[in-house]
Amino acid sequence: MKIFLIITILVLVSVSYKLNGQVLQQKLNTAKEIFNKGEFNSANSLYLEVIDEDPCNTHALLHLSKIALLSNKPGSAEEILLKLIEISSDMREAGLLLAEAYYRQDKFQKAAQILRSLGRDSFAKKLESFHNKIPYELSNPEKTFRIKFISTDPLPLIELRVNNSESLYFLLDTGASEVIINSEISDKLKVKVFGEETGTFAGGKKALYVHGTVDSLSLDQLVIKNVPVHILNTTNFSAAGGGRKVDGIIGTVLLYHFLSTINYIQGELILEPKKSVIEETSMTSGNCPMPFWMSGDHIIVTWGRVNEHEPMLLFVDTGAAGFGFLCPESTIKHADIKLPKDTAEGIGGAGKVTFTPFYCDEVTLGELKQPQVLSAFGLFPAELEYGQGFRIGGLVSHSFFRPYSLTFDFSGMRIYIRNN
Questions:
Q1: Which residue has the higher pLDDT, 413 or 23?
Q2: CA distance 323 to 107
Q3: CATH number of 289's domain
């Protein structure tokens, strides 16, 4: 009788364990599915439930760290990733994410150590050069600076100096990551170089860029010391600069060190001290706040629609000169877009690209709707659609935002769009 009871108990325990395992796996499958769709908050809740039941579940920990980075909480991501790497040291993806978490916190030495171990020596060398310097050191960290645009179209162009140089002209582009310096003048500007890597640009074309650093950037009265940069030939971007020679580009990495406003209406870039919280009531009337997430070092995504079809994540990339919307082939099909037969040529970071211009009936971002948006097919990099681990259905750019002022709050992870 006792033996029968013991066997019965063991069978019940085994069945219960199996059922619990199935429930756990179902939660993991559901969480992964909704993460891939970009529903990060819901995925985060499910992954936390998994961790409550299985604290060492590597898949859940990895995705919780990704969601922390997407929410721009690199400290939280760091904590999760250190635990994950302790559990399983053979995880290249976790190492790259941890390097990104350190990089976003300007902990360059820690990021460099990981990048070295993963074979990204040029990037590591650049970050190691900051061993006795403060990255993005500000001349007056408590002050607000307003930098007037030299011109606003086809893209905003600002004037600045590099290493106390003469005046130079830089585009403003949230589709770029670090500050970019024109390779034709990098020697003259005494940019320190550390080796090259390959990047992906418009049309999915690839090109080499060089890692470097500059001692200072001077934007009117604002001086930013010890700035990491990329070196790339930007001469072909003169059309985006309104015919002026483009000496470089200001990207998202510099912008996320501030509360940054691209004010197309007044024609100025406003850089304020970062705030932990912005009261929406403190923004001027007509503001349209929307949550956003940031993947990698600069890919800002938020929810939008195309031609009133199902919502999708869209990349807020202000640097597509003249256009308001770019998308992959899948969005063309899903949104029932009929492309014209005529094609055109443009210039991207890797040279000439062929594309098809068209007008999209309607593009919606948050609560903003724009009819008849000038768009292009063929400029959206194919690997961007799924390259971040979730689908990005297109990017929204300059002509969509042209009537507005955009404030990027990288602490509260909100974009405030105002029409005054």
A1: 413
A2: 36
A3: 2.40.70.10
Q: Which of 293, 285, 256, 292 is nearest to 366 (CA)?
A: 292
Residue with tokens 């938020």: 302
pLDDT tens digit sequence for 215-258: 999 999 999 999 999 999 998 888 887 888 999 999 999 999 99
Among residues 249, 262, 271, 264, which one has the least CA distance to residue 171? 249
Q: In the numeric block, which tokens belong to residue 147?
A: 């930098």
Same domain? For 35 and 110 the reply is yes
CATH code of the domain covering residue 88:
1.25.40.10
CB 221 within 8 A of CB 138: no
Residue closest to 357 by CA, chosen among 399, 317, 393 = 399
Burial of 341 (0-12, 13-18, 19+ CB in 10 A): exposed
Our CA dihedral for 91, 95, 98, 100, rounded to 10 degrees, sits at: -130
pLDDT digits (tens, 9 = 90+) for 167-189: 999 999 999 999 999 999 999 99
Token duo for residue 158: 């600002």
Q: Taking 60 as the threshold, does the pLDDT of residue 278 lie above it?
A: no
Angstrom distance (rounded) from CA 74 to CA 91: 18
Instruction: For residues 399 and 377, give the distance between their C-alpha atoms in angstroms, rounded to a whole number.
Output: 16
Cβ contacts of residue 208 below 8 Å, gap of 6+?
A: 196, 197, 198, 199
**Helix axis angle, 74-87 to 92-104, nearest 10°:** 150
The C-alpha atoms of residue 66 and residue 96 are separated, in whole angstroms, by 11
Residues 125 and 194: beta-carbon distance below 8 Å: yes
Residue 133 in contact with residue 126, Cβ under 8 Å? no
Chain-centre distance for alpha carbon 218 = 24
Is 155 found in the same domain as 225?
yes
Nearest to 327 by CA among 276, 393, 271: 393
